[in-house]
Specification:
Helix content: 25-40%
Largest sheet: 4 strands, antiparallel
Protein name: Myosin motor domain-containing protein
Organism: Ridgeia piscesae (Tubeworm)
Pfam families: Myosin_head
CATH superfamily of the largest domain: Kinesin motor domain
CATH topology of the largest domain: Kinesin
Distance between the termini: 67 Å
Keywords: Actin-binding, ATP-binding, Motor protein, Myosin, Nucleotide-binding
Strand order of the largest sheet: 1-2-3-4
Shape: elongated
Number of helices: 8
Strand content: 15-25%
CATH architecture of the largest domain: 3-Layer(aba) Sandwich
Family: Belongs to the TRAFAC class myosin-kinesin ATPase superfamily. Myosin family.
Low-confidence stretches: none
Radius of gyration: 26 Å
Structural class: alpha+beta
Amino acid sequence: MSLSELYTKDARVWVADPEAVWLGAKLLQDYKGEKQLRIEYEDGKEGVLQVKTSDALPPLRNPDILVGENDLTSLSYLHEPAVLYNLQVRFCDRNNIYTYCGIVLVAINPYQQLPIYDNDTISAYSKTVSAKYAMRYFATVCGAEAETQIEKKVLASNPIMEAIGNAKTTRNDNSSRFGKYIEIDFSKADTIVGANMRTVVFQAPDERNYHIFYQLCASADLPQFEFLKLNHPDIFYYTNQGEAVVIDGVDDAAEMLNTREAFSLLV
């Protein structure tokens, strides 16, 4: 179709905006090569677009029926505003953090723990992105319920690495504070035989230090930790600088039990 057939009155477009990045609008006139186009934004306000050349025409919007598709290649128009809006709808309106783009999987960090990886889900999908869930997937498909001891150890490394390497930040309650590359080794029979991890390594207001410190403080009443002279994290300099020693919805004492159990599996 020609541009004059696409850019007609009431055609929906995306308009670049310095604050919102992209705003939805519609044309109030047919495009016939003019240098200016009258538009109406979604809030009812009108404006004028400068169109120096046909290449400067605003991107067209996708039909509503396609918005929220789980594969970006299904969209009629695949450009920056279309991709961003589709991801926004899936993430903000539908709580979907994953979207396909052909064979590529786009993942949006939800900045919180999501209960989306049970055994049924793992069995249904052949892709995951985070190293933690990838390891759980491999262990499940290789050993089902009867995991080998090596597989259990590989999975057990995660709560340990989170405890000593993750912390609360202003944007993420469980942010990795170091870079990590995990290499998983498989046998010819497709079972996990080992794994290697390479690490690549201040508390601002509303942030915490590493989780392990708060897990220890929350377990101060345990007899085996008595010699450490533990107390509430508000007391210690290394744990109180961010003035945010508690994470909503997180039980540090329970997390300490998970960490200790993980260590016991790695003995």
